[in-house]
Amino acid sequence: MSIEQEPGNQRDLAYYRQCFKEINVNRTERGEAPYQPILLLSVIDLIAEGLIQANHIHITEELRTTFNKYRNILSPDRSFDSSLSMPFFHLQNEEHQFWHLDYKAEYYRDISSNKKLINEKIRKSIKQLKNYVNHAYIDQELFNLLQDNDSRKELVDTLVSKWFTSSEDIGEDKTEYLLKANKSFQSFIEEEIKKLKKSDKLAQKFYFRKSAAREVVFGKAVVGIYDYKCAFCRLKVSNSLNQNIVDGAHIEPFAISFNNEITNGISLCKNHHWAFDKGWFSLTDNYKIIITTDLQEESPHTRKMKDFHGEDILLPDTKKYDPGKYYPSRESLKWHRKKWRFQL
Ligand SMILES: [Zn+2]
């Protein structure tokens, strides 16, 4: 499916997913330098957190910090020239223009003598970028889509799938790459925790702000490990857009545990994810399903949940991954059973 074939080029979710896939990133002999996707991920986080409220993307300290964090985690080859100014300036030149710059009067005054030189200056320095540019703004249609949690997730998913799981360059399996990226995120969190004083809860809250990319990487790595199947009922459904019916669910919520290790995750279909989060079932230390006694069920076409009581869940394939390495951790399972008062 290409943009040209779509009727009317409607600026909807499908259109922007396509735009995000077709970003023209810098290619060097060391591979792709995906700084425009990283900038977009950063902007999306700030929108999600309410730090960008109107469609004016200013060059703020929060944007720089978020950009640098993502750059270090997702694109660790730091030998690339990777200041925020470069993608901020270049993203406007995309074929499908959705990123625009609002220039100051000084820009129009100075480019009359030498446009190339001025553009080069802006590209290379945040200071010059600020001197010449008020702010960036995106298509209003895109900005509106980014206000919605589900569309935001889909757009982040598109960026992560396209730009941060490519296997050709690195000769790696997609899930292996995600596992690595997830590990980098987790190491970053652990480093930050070490830096913070234990008592400083406010600082923690600030540091562990929402990160859509971190959540998407975690979710995709977890479901990849389970071969996109529900560990409870084995359901596996996907489509050509790579959407699938399972979620990489946290066993102990991230907001409580700050734990994004794969072993704090389990792949569950939407129904069983919801049921797990509500404590309708839990798991024993030997990965057997325990169902709450409080369910009234009718299920004429599929097995009742109750009938799964005592059965084994699906675990990651031991031919691909070391047995036990990515199994749900006993600690996380214990937390879940305690929270929902399951007695063994
Ligand atoms: Zn299921």
From TrEMBL:
Q: Which segments constitute the HNH nuclease domain?
A: 230-283
* Coiled coil region boundaries: none
Record domain ScoMcrA-like DNA sulfur-binding: where: 20-167
Per the record, the domain of life is Bacteria
An example of a Pfam family matching this protein is DNA-SBD_ScoMcrA
Keywords of this protein's UniProt record, alphabetized? Endonuclease, Hydrolase, Nuclease
| GO molecular function terms noted in the UniProt entry | endonuclease activity
Do the record's keywords include Nuclease? yes
Q: Matching InterPro entries, A to Z?
A: DNA-SBD_ScoMcrA, HNH_nuc, PT_DNA_restrict
Q: Which protein are we looking at?
A: Putative restriction endonuclease
Q: Identify the species of origin.
A: Allocoleopsis franciscana PCC 7113
Upper classification of the organism: Bacteria, Bacillati, Cyanobacteriota, Cyanophyceae, Coleofasciculales
